[in-house]
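User: Fold this; tokens only.

Assistant: Input:
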Amino acid sequence: MTFAPDLSGTSFGPKGGGGGGQKKPMTQEMAAVREYCMGADGRNKAESTVLLHVSHSNLKETFFQEIRLDMHMTVERVKHKLEFHVGTSAVSNQLYLLDENKQVLAEMEDSQMLGYYSPYDGCTLHIVDLDPHSMSAGGWLEDTSLVTKYEISEEAYAKRENTYRNFKAKKLAEDPSWTYQKDLAERAAKNPEAAARAGMQPMGMAKPKVEDDGYMEEEASKVKVGERCEVAGGRRGAVMWVGQAAELPKGWWVGVRYDEPVGKNDGSIKGARYFECEENYGGFLRPDLVTVGDFPEDDPFADLGEENEI
């Protein structure tokens, strides 16, 4: 029986550990090997390797970008790999190959090699889950509103002593102008070092507005377009732009194209474009928040050794 995939409502596009300590500088030979293997943007690959996206009929928010797969793998083996990531068993997985416009190119058969369907970089493997009892059905893997939340009655809450409501009432009785933000600021002023570690701003010490056009110019000079990087929070990507922008506060900025959709834009700010990337894959940061170095793109299947394959 042939099934036509229902693509309505499906998402199609829209961390790795950081380099904690100082790394030893690479030798010239190692640098040459790395350049050969990674290429300028970290996407070098073998001739038999293809970069494919993965979408799912039940998962509206989950979308895997550029999964590396070998053309010599059977479709059945591909399904077993995908099972670890989407929860759909190989026997219930009807796989379709879509082009970059999300048009169906082929319904894939288990016995065929992946290369039989001539996929190319940018195509999508779309999973249609045929199991009505699948763990991914009904939104249970994504929709938190389906999870029963803990609730407490008003009477039971009122009987408790150590609650925020009682804490707030006590503080307002002592100082009618009390606010939680004011309380945090006062604590930060008493212990600036601890506040700085926690990201708290002491009262009366608001971050000054940058007025110097050359702000962080020295830090920016150490960042080059095309370098791999890691930014605050362990997000990885590639440096796409370094400079100043009229649409941003004064000083120097770095434009980053993230490996995953963890950014805030598509490489443009207020209509002015500074580099190209997909929506939510771009970001602009101060140079001191960007660390350049050996930060390769994480492979979602890197943890799947042969012992995990059937």
